[in-house]
Amino acid sequence: AQTVTQSQPEMSVQEAETVTLSCTYDTSESDYYLFWYKQPPSRQMILVIRQEAYKQQNATENRFSVNFQKAAKSFSLKISDSQLGDAAMYFCALLSNDYKLSFGAGTTVTVRA
Amino acid sequence: GAGVSQSPSNKVTEKGKDVELRCDPISGHTALYWYRQSLGQGLEFLIYFQGNSAPDKSGLPSDRFSAERTGGSVSTLTIQRTQQEDSAVYLCASSPGLAKNIQYFGAGTRLSVL
Predict the structure, then answer these.
(1) CA distance B88 to chain A (A)
(2) Which tens digits make up the pLDDT trace of B37-77?
(3) Are B91 and B75 in contact (CB under 8 A)?
């Protein structure tokens, strides 16, 4: 069984500043993918970034980057130069050989103008 | 359409009634997934379909829940004799296949059982 833990229910960041969201996971498999999804009030789950476990290089996508520590089973998301449109709930998720996404509880990000 | 489409967007029903939720996946995507998002349980997997293979129903919470996918495209999630604990957002996702692909989500159906 896979578990994903997000220990920060809420995070607040000043516009243009940086915020880091934490995620830890547990799986017995060696081949898996990790994702960060964003869910604004519209409910649409939007993919932010993806990391393949076999890749050592951390994924980046514009202002979004991850710190993937495979041995520690840690997968944090850094949002740089935060914008008002970044305000949403962020979910960390793991996809392994059972093809089912396992999600964390989510972190609500508030951006202060 | 360009994305995953779900209908209705919101559904209010009375306890004991049956409801049907619809999902139209991205054209060409062979895998389709249903998830439930509730306050108490967070996001949880319900069922997935891949092509003509038998679906993986391991996440369905009770036999009141069922789903079908006709013609390898549109899927319907049916909840019979709804209970208040069924109140949640039901999310559908699709992907090009069952490999570790990105799952693209619809905007969900918010179900409220009174």
Answers:
(1) 12
(2) 998 788 999 999 998 888 999 999 999 999 999 887 999 99
(3) no
